[in-house]
Design a protein that fits this description.
The complex is a heterodimer of chains A (476) and B (407). By secondary structure, chain A is mainly alpha-helical. Chain A folds into two domains: 6-186, no CATH class; 190-276 and 356-475, no CATH class. Chain A has 18 helices and no strands. Chain B has a domain at 75-169 and 243-391: Rossmann fold, CATH 3.40.50. Chain B has 14 helices and nine strands. Chain B has a five-stranded parallel β-sheet, sandwiched between helices. Chain B is globular, with a radius of gyration of 26 Å. The mean pLDDT of chain B is 90. The chains are: A mainly alpha (476), B alpha/beta (407). Chains A and B meet through helix 9 and helix 18 of A and helix 1 and helix 5 of B.
Chain lengths: 476, 407
């Protein structure tokens, strides 16, 4: 059941009506209903994997309670270890088992040893990387005594499986989302209207921009030898925009859907391609994952409070590399993460308090030449790293990159229609970059707003792809 | 009643009022879309485009007169229509292949007209043939006595269709299919055509009964025997100016010379696909079905281009010379690839670079029947009748001329 499908629209409408028709008291009724709806939503992909969510939720619920009740540090560490082992064990088995076996066989072959281990061709349960991180953060935060565990088992299970963000985030923290399940919800018209606007905007980004760029990207990347250098650069730009619109579009729909039920999810994207340096980019791109890695990997490793700069650098590189590996069991993701870690080193040399936090060209329409240069420089670096992310193997990425330099630069450009989509999203994002999302237009007169909604809806209907192209991040 | 419970109930009432306001706004916003959708759906239903292929086929076959099935807006779904046709007609003589065999008609097989069905358009690549054979083996389709199969050269090559399209998913039952149909109507400015088609029940020129916008407006579609009736407009144009025109877009000669689509490079023989074809045909033969293969012809212009295109040489030579030997080795009868000049005809006997006219393909069927062994069921066909049909053809493109002028 994808967000860009009719079945989801029907599902959402039914769940919305029932949810708000149910009595507000006792609290558990609506939460129980959301839990059932979320399990139906997840079971729609493959009901066999419902057991995994139940297992993850149960293990961390029980461990969370035990952690809170136990005073002994040693015992607390053991309990945390069990949580980490269980969660990462399940994730590792489903996501990385075949990768490790294949990598081991390749390594043994390179040193002249013949090995023949069995791979299991395991199907990756959708959303496992996301909900595993969500439940992990719950136990870690209890271990750190940042939160206390909830006794409300229904609220907890609903928090883990909340359908708007279950399969591809944003990755929520218990401290932010769980209390919302423990509050009585009253329908808020303005919040629901804004939620609907954000859903519409997400749908536009996914179906009109990302899905229309996808065929060009697929053609260029799968057959790069047939294209000229400029075409490969164009393909790289297209992919940068495709993945942004695909993933941020999903996040917008998730956040918008949650708002229909009175929940506020974390912002996941904040116009990342208008970042002036890599540090700013990572504060604007997949924010829920970046902050997760910051809080649960980078800082525990020592962060920037290290004795030597080398240690600080290695913390950065390690965090980014693990983050790359989180994306998928392929060396291309690891290299992508490593590369971003390398990019991050120069800004980290600067005083951490000089980080760019404000929206670029705040209060002005045009950026300064310096800002423009910084934005372009950041985009080029990020787009280059995306080549590894999109490539099917390391050799593919290297072949693609080397072909940019060695192929003809005089051949005419093809697939230039995609540039209109690139231009459209960049212009809209730029104009609305100070807003939470570009359709935050409640200040405009009603007829203007409705005109805009109609234009976007017509574009979705007549320009958007209808074939339900899967979201890229569902594979993670 | 306490103060807090009064305020709680006020909040509740206020909230439920807001929910209804919210739903009303959504409905108001969607209202124009709903109205347009209802009108278009109604139009598509009236034309027959929206009818499920199985239902449309039953309506067509139940008609006492010739009836043409030509939907325009869900037209890519004729696999379901053709499979239903095979099940309905339970033919003794079944033709399968791509659109390049659709010109074979029941009248060529007199007196076995009622035992004939043309499943042309069902197969696009070797995987489709494999799936078709599997359906026959599983008993999902009735076994014919004679199977005539047109094999295209691109079925043997790499990079041409990686899967089969012989599935039962009907885009009429998908939201995306309807959106796509609306898009086609809007983009092609076809509102008028749809609404004209809701009221006209007979096809132009020939006056056949019709199902679907194409049939009603352009007079084209599938006859009851599964063969394709080409647009009368083309026939009338030909009568006015009897010259060969490649009506495909892009033209076949361009596709060959520019190595596009079916002729893209590298054009390499895929042994896996070759084996799939031979295996599928052998399996069907083992079930007691007479299998007659033929290689649909090309225009002389296109044939010569294929002969003189070095990058396509290996593939084309294999198709033309080696593949027939392989079929022969497996006891599968074959009419080899040809072009009009080889039959003392010319390219006016082609609709385009790769679709033969019914007169030309009638000639090929005659050869197939003549070369069939005496024990063949095809020997029941009245060959004199077929010869007369070919000789008395009105124009090179068709046996029968449109009698009136196109509006």
């Amino acid at each position: 059941m994808q967000f860009n499908s009719l079945i989801f629209a029907v599902f959402l409408f039914i769940v919305f009506l029932f949810y708000w028709s149910l009595p507000n008291k006792p609290l558990g009724i609506r939460n129980a209903f959301l839990l059932i709806a979320s399990y139906i939503f997840y079971g729609w992909w493959d009901w066999h994997f419902l057991g995994l969510i139940l297992l993850n939720s149960t293990v961390d619920y029980v461990l969370g309670m035990s952690l809170h009740q136990t005073q002994s540090n040693r015992r607390r560490k053991i309990l945390l270890g069990i949580s980490l082992t269980t969660n990462l064990g399940i994730l590792g088995f489903f996501k990385y088992y075949d990768f490790f076996i294949n990598s081991a066989m390749e390594f043994l072959q390179t040193i002249g040893l013949q090995a023949n281990f069995h791979t299991l061709a395991i199907i990756l349960p959708v959303g496992i990387s996301f909900y595993t991180f969500q439940t992990l953060s719950y136990t870690i935060d209890i271990y750190r005594r940042k939160i206390t565990p909830t006794h409300n088992v229904i609220a907890y299970f609903a928090f883990v499986s909340f359908f708007p963000q279950l399969v591809a985030g944003p990755i929520e923290r218990a401290s932010h989302l769980l209390p919302q399940f423990l509050q009585r919800k009253v329908f808020d018209l303005e919040q629901a209207k804004d939620g609907l606007r954000q859903i519409l905007w997400g749908l536009f980004k996914k179906t009109v921009i990302a899905d229309n760029l996808a065929p060009y990207v697929d053609k260029i990347f799968s057959n790069y030898e047939a294209y000229s250098g400029p075409m490969l650069l164009l393909g790289t730009i297209y992919f940068a925009i495709q993945i942004y619109c695909d993933f941020s579009g999903y996040s917008d729909m998730a956040i918008g859907t949650a708002r229909l039920f009175g929940f506020d999810l974390k912002r996941n994207f904040a116009y990342p391609y208008f970042s002036r340096d890599i540090g700013e980019f990572w504060r604007r791109w997949h924010i829920s994952l970046s902050t997760w890695f910051r809080d649960y990997v980078y800082i525990p490793l020592g962060g920037n409070r290290t004795r030597t700069s080398l240690q600080h650098f290695s913390n950065i590189i390690l965090t980014f590399t693990i983050s790359g590996f989180w994306h998928g069991a392929n060396w291309t993701f690891i290299i992508w993460g490593f590369l971003n870690g390398l990019y991050y080193l120069p800004p980290s040399l600067r005083d951490p308090h000089t980080h760019q936090t404000e929206v670029v060209a705040m209060g002005r329409f045009f950026p300064t030449p310096l800002e423009f240069f910084q934005i372009c420089r950041t985009f080029i670096l990020i787009a280059f790293a995306w080549i590894f992310f999109r490539a099917t193997s390391f050799a593919h990425a290297i072949g693609f990159i080397s072909h940019i330099g060695t192929s003809s630069w005089l051949a005419p450009l093809r697939h230039t229609k995609g540039l209109w989509y690139v231009l459209l999203i960049l212009v809209i994002d730029w104009v609305q970059r100070e807003k939470q999302h570009p359709l935050e237009i409640s200040n405009l007169p009603r007829y203007t707003r409705w005109g805009i909604y109609y234009i976007i809806s017509i574009l979705v209907l007549f320009v958007g792809k209808t074939g339900h192209v899967p979201f890229i991040y569902f594979q993670f | 009643m306490s103060h807090s419970s009064i305020s709680n109930s006020k909040v509740k009432k206020h909230a439920s009022g807001e929910i209804w306001l919210f739903l009303r706004r959504i409905l108001t916003f969607l209202f124009p879309f709903l109205i347009i959708s209802i009108i278009l759906e109604f139009g598509l239903w009236k034309t027959g485009d929206l009818w499920a292929p199985q239902y449309a086929l039953h309506q067509q076959q139940a008609s006492a007169n010739e009836s043409i099935y030509g939907p325009r807006f869900f037209s890519d779904q004729f696999n379901i229509y053709k499979l239903s046709g095979i099940r309905y007609r339970h033919p003794s003589i079944l033709v399968i292949g791509s659109s390049r065999v659709m010109q074979i008609r029941d009248i060529m097989f007199h007196p076995l007209e009622t035992e004939f069905y043309n499943g042309g358009g069902l197969l696009r690549n070797a995987f489709d043939l494999e799936a078709f054979a599997a359906m026959l083996m599983r008993g999902e389709l009735p076994l014919p006595k004679v199977l005539i199969i047109g094999i295209d050269p691109w079925w043997l090559r790499t990079n041409y269709g990686e899967t089969t399209w012989l599935h039962d998913s009907d885009e009429r039952f998908s939201f995306a299919g309807h959106i796509e149909a609306f898009r086609q109507i809007v983009k092609k400015g076809a509102f008028q055509k749809v609404f004209a088609a809701t009221s006209s029940l007979k096809s132009p020129v020939f006056g056949h009964e019709t199902i679907g916008t194409f049939a009603r407006i352009d007079g084209t579609g599938f006859r009851k025997d599964g063969s394709s009736l080409y647009p009368p407009k083309v026939l009338l144009e030909f009568m006015e100016t009897p010259i060969y025109v490649d009506r495909e877009s892009p033209s076949i000669i361009d596709r060959i010379q520019m190595a596009r689509r079916e002729f893209s490079l590298p054009a390499v023989i895929d042994e896996k696909r070759v084996n799939l074809i031979v295996k599928a045909l052998s399996l069907i033969q083992k079930k007691g079905v007479e299998v007659h293969a033929f290689m649909p012809p090309f225009s002389t212009e296109a044939f010569e281009a294929l002969e003189t295109s070095p990058p396509l040489n290996q593939w084309w030579d294999y198709y033309k010379n080696e593949f027939p030997k392989l079929l022969e080795k497996n006891n599968i009868m074959l009419v080899p690839v040809s072009h009009p000049v080889q039959f003392d005809l010319n390219d006016t006997y082609m609709f385009d670079g790769w679709h033969p006219s019914e007169v030309y393909i009638g000639d090929l069927m005659k050869r197939m029947i003549e070369q069939a062994p005496d024990s063949s069921y095809l020997k029941n066909v009245n060959i004199e009748n077929l010869t007369a049909l070919i000789e008395k053809a009105s124009i090179p493109l068709t046996f029968h001329l449109p009698s009136t002028s196109y509006p």
